[in-house]
Every structure is written in structure tokens, then in C-alpha cells.
Amino acid sequence: MASTLKKGVLHVAIFHVLLFRFPDSVQGNIRYSIPEEMGLGAFVGNVARDLSLEVKQLSERKFRVASEKQREYLAVNLTTGTIFIKERIDREQLCGHIFRCMLMLEAVVENPLKVFHIEVDILDINDNAPIFKRTEISKEISEMTPVGTIFPLPSAKDGDIGSNSIHSYQLSPSEYFSLNLLSDSEQVGMPELLLQQSLDREQQTVHRLTLTAFDGGNPEKIGTAQVVVNVLDANDNPPICGQSVYQITIPENVPEDYLIVKVTANDLDEGLNGEVTYSFSDHTSDKVRELFTLDAASGEIKVDGVVDFEEANNYQILVQAADRGTQRNSVYCKVLLNITDVNDNWPEITATSAFNTIPENVAAGTAVSVVRVTDRDYKNSPNVSCSIPRSIPFNLNSSFNNYYTLITRGNIDREKVPEYNITITCTDNGSPPLTTRKIIRVQVADINDNAPRFTQSSYTVYVVENNVIGSSIGSVSASDPDSNQSAQLSYFILDSLINSWPSDTLVSISSTGGVLFARKSFDYEEVKSFSFHVQVKDAGAPPLSSNVAVKVVIIDQNDNAPVILSPSLAIDEPIPRSAESGYLVSKVTATDADSGQSAQLSYELRQPTDESLFTVSSETGEIWTIRRFDHRDPLRQKIVILVKDNGTPSLSSTVTINVSVQGDLAESSSKAGLLGRTGPWKSDLKLYLIILFSTTSFILLVAIVFLSIKVYRNRYYGNRCFQATSYLPRRISPYGIQKASVTLQMPSNYRDSRDGDSLPKEFIDEMTPDEAFNDLMRLKIHESLAASTINKKNGTSVPVDHRNTTYTSRGDTPGYYKVRVIFLKSLEM
Q1: Which band of pLDDT confidence, cut at 50, 70 and 90, is reported for residue 250?
Q2: Do 322 and 329 touch, CB atoms closer than 8 A?
Q3: CA-CA distance, 122 to 37, in Å (whole number)?
Q4: What whole-number distance in Å separates Cα of residue 820 and Cα of residue 763?
Q5: 563-818 is a CATH 2.60.40.60 domain
Q6: Tens digits of per-residue pLDDT, 441-500?
Q7: How many whole angstroms separate alpha carbon 280 and alpha carbon 317?
Q8: Hey, how many other C-beta atoms are within 10 angstroms of the C-beta on 573?
Q9: Predicted pLDDT of residue 705
Q10: Are 31 and 103 in contact, with CB atoms under 8 Å apart?
Q11: Which tens digit of pLDDT belongs to each residue from 3-45?
Q12: Does domain 128-234 have CATH number 2.60.40.1120?
């Protein structure tokens, strides 16, 4: 019969659809009405049509339905757009005895985000029959009980509501008893047993009656219980309640053992027949027994559980007061307990997120989540206000019925904040107000909006020359605050020319690590430094890049031996036998293509024929005599000069000078090597001149006058242009202390190596007036008779034919110099 009823209801059910339009993301309400216990897959409604959505949009816009209940009773067919029964719906299990049973759903579509509120009204069907708690009800009634006395009977229970709940009661026919229904505005009348005729225990001890409960369904259902009345002997005074009805009001959440009321009843009898005990009546509900206790002796009713206004706002408690006589008399006192609400429920926040991740360039006003707020304290706190921190780029906009939409506001930068934990704070308006907080997590997705940046504005790397090809010479580093592919960096060398060389032929770079490698072995003497640019690019879309300048500085090594400029080959140097100590024999000039300490040169005397005859200045390379020659000294002397640099390890070169000692005839041509003006040198020379020119005194006189005029002019102009005089300091050599015996007259072109120039410049030997009168000077030049081009690195010499070239440096060929030598013809008489 129930199955037939379900099918009939299914065929004739009328579905009501109500659609209300609202602004923002929450669009409105749809209401359906369906009976309970419909079969699985049964049609509920066409949500696509009722929401004005195309069926094909349901899948594209990710249409979904969420329920407040943990179980999913309804589902949506995205192909047809219909809502159907997914799981059996039992209204009594879902809503209990609540008159209106609503199943609340939220339908969400995206692109754009919209939320629809769906209410499904579950209609009751008559699927439950009335049931009595006990199938047999025992009553003990004294034979002295007056006619008209009423005895309460337990009520039947029916899981259905409304017209399908209990409608009436019926008692089997009896001449002693009838059924009386106690009217109650809140529920169906409570059955009572009415005594119509005095009982006579001697005639009938037990009366058996049938109590039947009928519901209002179609067809109706019934439930029965047997009423057994045992007739007792007389206890002719029943207890009398102090009040037949107690009206009590208490707030919810009162503490345990809270005294609600004390029920009192009096019995005029004496002894056990006058002692009254209290108990809950048989039809007291289980919920009342769980929440309250009744003291049997005192009649005090106390709280024994949690009284919650949101579960029930009133209770009806029926207390039975009975004496302890043999034939017990009882009376019933009713307690009507009303519960008042207090603000004891925190707001509940439910969030439906449209996006768990948003891009950092998301437009302002984009909906991120829809938030629904409910509060069970609907009387004291019907309205709830919600807010979020102002420091975050989001707004929380109110929609309707405590719905809120979380939208973006302002710029969102993942590099500053990669994730937002948005705290939504909701406060009701109760007293005191209660606050609930819920955190919504929103992650920010990266876009390529940051170009990579080098850790330095420029880089300088140092490479020792003669490096290994392919070796690492340094590195550059960059960083990108973006993430994923946008932070994957690649390094490149930009194409350019470096001293006419393409940059990629000199250096290369690791594309992933930024490590620089040499692609050739560098030579400090060819190039001392060069620069190029490195580009770093990320893998974003579109890719971003940055450039940086890198300077490579070549560090010199001592890889070049000293090159002897003069004498370039082994030469013969004649000196007179009469040369005194401190005689300047020759001068060695050298250069080194290296730089720094590796180019600091020193001179040493190696393998001399006689160590007591010669010494060399370690700084200037000048070779002097230490003593005079005697007849035992060989006429040919060999001097080997070692020139070494100050590098590590030290490199060196040697040159050989052959010294030939000449007799007296050669002395007159070598007086330019003697740098004295006074003393025995001058006396010997005068004597020699007197003997030599004794026959030509007249011609000598004319020559003296002529020379005096010329020397005067030469001194006047020479002092303005040249430094003619140098002095030989006292030096300590490996061969002892040497000191020029006279003031040495040095060539005007000579400069000490400490002046920073190891090459001779043009010079003129200046003659003094005294020498003009006493000597015919011929200047002996130890350098080459013509200027030559000399390579400082390998020492090669290329002769050239020019007589008046100046001292210059060839900028296009490092290591080469031009030397100008001027010859002065001596006057011969």
C-alpha cells in the first residue's frame, strides 16, 4: 500500500520553482517540492531551464551542486540539466519532527562565477504507523475511585507529521470505561481513561481494553496497545497536586543540577496511604528523561543535561504523584517548561572558492570566493557582519541573506606576497557578541614581470697570461625574483669585436652557470685587457633579459728574458794602457718586454779575464776599470756581462765585450774616456802636445784663438740644452771598493737607468776650453754607427738609413724604439 502511495505521489507531485534575481555573484533562489521516499534516479526538476542556462554550458562552466548535509541526496545530470534522486530520502531521518523539512543546495557555475540557492522542500508521506511505547498498559484502580476519575494513558508515536501523524484514538467498548481526549493546542489530544461506572472488585478484578491510535493518512494506519486495569481495594483519598499546571521559563544552557520547579501533592490519608512519591508519567518522552531528573521524595525537577533553545524551545513534563497505600492512588501534575534563547552560538562560515590560485596580473574586481554566514541564534542575532583586513588587496562585498563575495582589489605582486591567508571575521549582534574567524587560502601564480638582474653592475676578472685554453677565468651571476620557467636563466656573450677579434673567439660562457672560459692563451705583451658584454635571459613568455660589462685584465708573467740592446753583438773595446781606475770602458743597455718587477733589470760581471781589473754597475750596466794596467796584464781582456730580471723565476741574457789594451799612440784617440780635468792627467797631455806641435806653434796659436771662440759658443748653447757632467759615485762591487780617481766627464746623452729610461737618447759631447787648448778630441761612440730598429722582446735589429731621426716610440709595434746617434767631427790641425 505504501508503494502504491509513493507511485501516486510521484506521478501527481507538483514542483514549484521560485526564482529571484539578486545582484553580484549570488543570483537567486529556486525552490522545488518533492515527496520523501522517491526512487533512485527520480526526476526532481530541470535546473538548466529554471536557471536560464544552456545545457551545453553546464559542463563548460563547471556546474556543480553542494549540500549542507554530509550526504548527497540529489545530483545533476550535466547532459540533460535535470536534478534527480541520488540517495533515498527519509524525511523523518533527515528532519525529525520539524514541520518544514528543507534540503538546502548551492549551485555554482564559473566563467563568470555565479551561485544559485536551491531549496528542496521534502514533503511527508504516510510511511509510518502509530506505535505505542509499550504494547501492554497496566493500571491499578481502587474500587473506591469515584466515577468521572480520569487516568492518563500513554500516547502513541508517529514518525510522520501533519495530516499523516496521529489523528485520533479509540478504546474498545466497555461499560466501566470510556476514552477521553485531553485537548492540546500544540498537538493531538492526549488519551485518558474515564471511569464511567463504579468498580466492584468482587464482580470483576481485571478489565482488559484495547486502545487504538489512528493517523490521518490516506489510507490511514493504526497502532494498538492493551490496557489492563487491575481493581484494588479502597484507598479512598488520592493525592491532590498543589498546582495542576506549572508554567516555568528558564534560559538555555543553564548548569546541571539547576532546580527548575518543585512539584507538591498532598494526601489526606494517613500512614503509607498518605505518603506521596513522584515519578515521570509513562508518556514522558525519552528526551525529557535525558535532560531532567525528578526526585521521587521531594518532587524537585532539576537539569541533568544541556538545554539548547535551538533544539527545542519548550518541554511538557507530566509528573505522577502517588501514595504508598496498598491500593495506590495517583494524581498527575503538568509542568510546561519554556526555554528562552541566549547568544550561545558562534556564526558559521562556509566558503565556496572559485579560484584557489590567481595570476598576479588578475584584474581588480575578480570574484575569488563566495562566503555564506549562518547563525543558529536567529532571534537574538539575526544579522552578522563580516570583514577582512584592510592591508590585503581584497574586498569583501555583502550580497544578500548573509552572503558575501570576496573580490580582488589593487595590484597583486607574487614577488612581494606569494600567498594570502585571508582571515574572514564574522561577528553577530548578540549580547555579548560572538565572533568566528575563517581563513581562506589564495595562492598567487607567477607571470614573467621581472627581468633578471646581475649581482654586480660590472665584473672584472683577472687572468694570468699563458693560461690553459678552455680553463675557467671567472663567472657572472644573476637572479630573477620570478619562479618556475620565468626564473630559469641562460647566459650569452653578445657578439662584438675585441681588437679586431670576434668576442666568441676569445671567451665563452656556460649558458646555465655563467662560468667564463678562455678560448685562447692570452699574451700580456700583445693585449693587457679587453671588455665584452654578457646577456642573461629568462625562459618566461615573453623572455626578459639584462646585460652587463665584463672586463678581462691580463696579469703579466715573467715569460720574456732581458733583451740586450747595446752592444747587440760581441764587440771590441779599445782602452789605453795608461787608463786610470774609474775609466768608463763601456755600457750595456738592455730592456725587458715584461712589466713590474719582471722588468726590473740588474747587471752582473761574469767570467772576466782578470777580476781585479773591471767592475760593472748593477743598476746602470756601466763597466769601469778598478785599477791601472801594468806590463803583466794581457793586452786582450774578455768581459761577460749577465743581465737578469727580478721575476720569479728570474730570466737572464749575456753579452761578451772584448777589451783590447792599446799603446801610447792610441791614448790620444781615447782621451774622451778619461773624465778628468786636473792633476797628472792634464800635465801628461800638455807635455805630449808641446812635443807634438813644437814645429807648428804659429798654426797652433791661430787654432787656439779659433777654438776659444767656438768653445765659448758651444758652452753657451750646450749648457742650455744638455747636462754635460756626471759624477761617478762611490760603489761597492764584488771586486772591492771602487772610486773614480778624477771627476768623470760623461757623454751628454747618458742618463742613469734610475731615471726610468734604459735606452740612450741623442747626445753631444761638449768640450771645455781647457781641453780645446790641450787636446784634439775625437769622440768614440760605442753604439752602432747608424740608427737601428730594435725589438725589445727578441732583440732583433733592423738597420735603417737615416741620420737625423728623433727618439720616438712606435705605437703600432710594442717593444721597438728608434735611436738617433749624432757624430761630431773632431778638429784636426
Answers
A1: very high
A2: yes
A3: 10
A4: 9
A5: yes
A6: 998 888 888 889 999 999 999 998 888 898 999 999 999 888 888 888 999 998 888 877
A7: 7
A8: 18
A9: 78
A10: no
A11: 433 433 333 333 333 333 334 444 557 888 889 888 888 888 8
A12: no
Mean pLDDT for 790-799 is: 47
Helix (H) or strand (E) holding 687: helix 680-692
Grid cell, residue 804, equals 737625423
Q: Which three cell numbers stand for residue 460?
A: 672584472
Q: First and final CA of the chain: distance in angstroms?
A: 166
> d(Cα 390, Cα 404) in Å, to the nearest integer?
16
Class of domain 236-341: mainly beta
Spatial separation of the C-alpha atoms in residues 736 and 718, rounded to whole Å: 37
3-class secondary-structure state, position 754:
helix
Q: Give CA separation, 440 vs 62, 325, 350, 422, 437, in Å.
A: 21, 69, 10, 5, 10
The one-letter code for the residue type at 352 is T
CA distance 462 to 555: 7
Instruction: Give φ, ψ of 412 to 5 degrees.
Output: -115, 120
In this structure, are residues 447 and 360 in contact, taking their beta carbons and an 8 Å threshold? Answer: yes
pLDDT in tens, 61-97: 888 887 776 678 888 888 888 888 888 888 878 887 7
Please give the helix or strand (H or E) that residue 748 lies within, else none: none
CA–CA gap between residue 391 and residue 31 (Å, rounded): 40
Residue 765 · residue 725 · CB < 8 Å:
no
Q: What's the pTM?
A: 0.45
Dist CA 438 CA 424 (whole Å): 5
Nearest to 266 by CA among 318, 332, 323, 320: 323
Closest CA relative to residue 658, chosen from 778, 571, 760: 571
- Do the domains spanning 2-123 and 128-234 agree at the CATH topology level? yes
- For 375-426, the three-class secondary structure string (H helix, E strand, C coil) is CCCCCCCCCEEEECCCCCCEEEEECCCCEEEEEECCCCCCCCCCEEEEEEEE
User: What does the H/E/C string look like for 60-119?
Assistant: HCCCEEEECCCCCCEEEECCCCEEEECCCCCHHHHHCCCCCCEEEEEEEECCCCEEEEEE
Q: State which amino acid sits at residue 718.
A: G
Q: Which amino acid is at 728?
A: L
Q: Say which residue the cell 545533476 belongs to.
A: 76
- What distance lies between CA 102 and its chain's CA centroid? 48
What burial class does residue 47 get, using C-beta atoms within 10 Å of its C-beta: 0-12 exposed, 13-18 middle, 19+ buried? buried
Which set of grid coordinates corresponds to residue 59?
A: 559542463
Q: What are the domain boundaries of the chain? A: 2-123, 128-234, 236-341, 348-434, 453-555, 563-818
Nearest to 401 by CA among 120, 638, 106, 109: 106
Q: Measured between alpha carbons, how far is 229 from 742 in angstroms, rounded to an integer? A: 166
- Nearest Cα to Cα of residue 592 among 820, 815, 818: 815
Pick the CATH number of 2-123 from 3.40.50.720, 3.40.50.2000, 1.10.260.40, 2.60.40.60: 2.60.40.60
Q: Containing H/E element for 653?
A: strand 652-662
DSSP SS3 for 489: strand
Domain range 453-555, CATH class: mainly beta
Q: pLDDT tens across 316-347, in order? A: 999 999 988 877 888 999 999 999 888 888 88
In this structure, the dihedral spanned by the alpha carbons of residues 657, 661, 665 and 667, taken in order and rounded to 10 degrees, is 70
Summarised one tens digit per residue, pLDDT across range 577-620 is 888 888 898 898 988 887 877 778 889 888 766 777 888 888 88
Alpha-carbon dihedral 623, 626, 629, 633, rounded to 10 degrees = -80
CATH 2.60.40.60 fits 348-434, yes or no: yes
